[in-house]
């Protein structure tokens, strides 16, 4: 086994143990996400991990030891099998799934653990009598981990083994399509869909729609629409299919012109918009502050006999607040009750966010207080709306309150604060937030470092930026070509400032050249 794989396995053993919730594990992600979130969802709920999960640690250590002693994955697997009598084994399906989740950042290690869990003889042994294969969640995790790391060769190897073991699922193929879409490999995502029948996996309209959603979510909306129309002979056009495209233009990329065009296309293909179609259009017009068209589509929706849901009323609250129609916005809350609905946290956020954007912080605080009195806990979106407008002292208090409420803060929150304070020309406050981030056990990612370093460079604090850039590289994050060039030019232009002869490194060692830090206001 390659040393990097063994090192990665050992590193996983040092990670905090994951506490699985009793509900479905579902973590959403956006592009350029800073946290360890994913779009992976287990098909079945998992039991919570024990407080002292020694069995899991022992199993991971066993896999790590085999990986360290082996020179290839095949040899590592043989070592695991040969020591299975004395070494720890995945004694339960949930243990194997938890182990794969711990190893999700290393697809090679996850694949090794999966193969060991699928202990039905040697890897090349023909199928026969033996223990049942691992649960589908384990296979799905392995496919997802490989695809997330863009190790599609490994992902396909897992899929082929699933086929040989007779456990290949549509979900596994959908996960693979989703990961191709995230990697902007549109043609390969479509090809994966096309080979499903070859792998004897049933293909129907729901799988086709999963492909369209994956393409739209990765902002390849035009490709999704083209595919929808090209395959209409095999998958007849429906309002649901057009809604997927409409959702892309309304929520993934808010483009009113494209949303209107798709709406007209539905009419051209004799498709009658349904309740979801109207909900999406109301959302689209609301996001752009178009009060007239928001109310027009809302009225048309009711005339067509569709009952507005909570999402529609949330959009109305947002656009009315944004356009300073506060009396009408508050009346929506009463209307919700009349319709048998209850305001949720999104309803309150739909009022709080535009109020904060308009710098009406006192009114926004009153709305949040009213929400809390009704037993509704603010979300990270609620706090972020305030953080975007507050000064440094109030921001630090909000971060503490977020922690107390269990609403964060997350890595994205700190990234937003870095950008805000650098835009306000307050580099010193950006550094205060950086130090505060460590208090909340948020490990800086490359995006955190790059935002901080670039901000310091832009504000003239190049030596200080060099220190953090050095720290970033020491932690194993990749360097930036443009910054390397800028730092090299800076060092060469200030070579007289750095004492000592010899070659100048692009990144000086901490404490060697920066004995005095410039004061940042």
UniProtKB/TrEMBL annotation:
Pfam families: PPR (PF01535), PPR_2 (PF13041), PPR_3 (PF13812). Residues 31-56 are annotated as: Disordered. Keywords: Repeat, Transit peptide. PPR repeats lie at residues 274-308, 309-343, 344-378, 445-479. It comes from the Eukaryota. Belongs to the PPR family. P subfamily. This is Pentacotripeptide-repeat region of PRORP domain-containing protein.
